[in-house]
């Protein structure tokens, strides 16, 4: 998935880990990501959390998309920070999933919390033996 994710790549995001129902991505905060207050623009923090959510809910090799997302910003990110978003599956039933994401900085301080609701649609990322494509 990351090979095709030019949006995440363009912001310098890297995958820390991916496991069934979980994912962790990191991203450096650059000067180009600062808003008029000199803080990391919330949209970049949201995008990091959303990308971690996407990798977590797609970790079962089923095409899964966001249905609804919500973020709460707890403190600002700053230029030079290295942010990490860690997504964890809360629930997965049928085609619906719920995932929580924590965004922390290099000091392990919480920057934001995010909740994503997912919906599995038709298709797989790669073929599996015995499974329909």
What does this structure look like?
The protein is α+β, with helices and mostly antiparallel strands and 133 residues long. The chain is 16% helix and 41% strand. It contains 2 helices and 6 strands; from the N terminus they run H-E-E-H-E-E-E-E. The protein has a 6-stranded antiparallel beta sheet, covered by helices on one side. The protein is globular, with a radius of gyration of 15 Å.
List the helices and strands and how they pair.
Elements: H1 6-10, E1 14-19, E2 22-28, H2 42-57, E3 64-73, E4 82-93, E5 96-104, E6 110-120
Antiparallel strand pairs: 1-2, 2-4, 3-6, 4-5, 5-6
Question: How do you describe this structure in short?
Answer:
By secondary structure, this protein is an alpha+beta fold. It has two helices and six strands. The chain has helices at 6-10, 42-57, and strands at residues 14-19, 22-28, 64-73, 82-93, 96-104, 110-120.
User: Based on CA inertia axes, which overall geometry fits?
Assistant: globular
The biggest sheet, with number of strands, parallel, antiparallel or mixed sense and barrel status, is: 6 strands, antiparallel
Give the overall average pLDDT. Answer: 94
Helicity level: 10-25%
Question: What brief labels describe this structure?
Answer:
133 residues; alpha+beta; six-stranded antiparallel sheet; globular
């Amino acid at each position: 998935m990351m090979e095709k994710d030019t949006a995440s790549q363009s912001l310098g995001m890297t995958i820390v880990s991916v496991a069934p129902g979980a994912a962790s991505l990191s991203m450096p905060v650059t000067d180009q990501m600062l808003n008029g207050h000199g803080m990391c623009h919330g949209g970049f923090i949201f995008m990091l959390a959303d990308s971690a959510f996407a990798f977590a809910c797609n970790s079962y090799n089923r095409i899964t998309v966001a249905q609804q997302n919500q973020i709460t910003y707890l403190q600002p990110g700053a230029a030079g920070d290295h942010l990490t978003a860690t997504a964890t599956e809360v629930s997965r039933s049928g085609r619906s999933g719920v995932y929580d994401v924590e965004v922390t900085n290099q000091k392990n301080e919480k920057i934001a919390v995010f909740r994503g609701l997912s919906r599995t649609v038709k298709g797989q990322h790669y073929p599996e033996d015995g499974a329909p494509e």
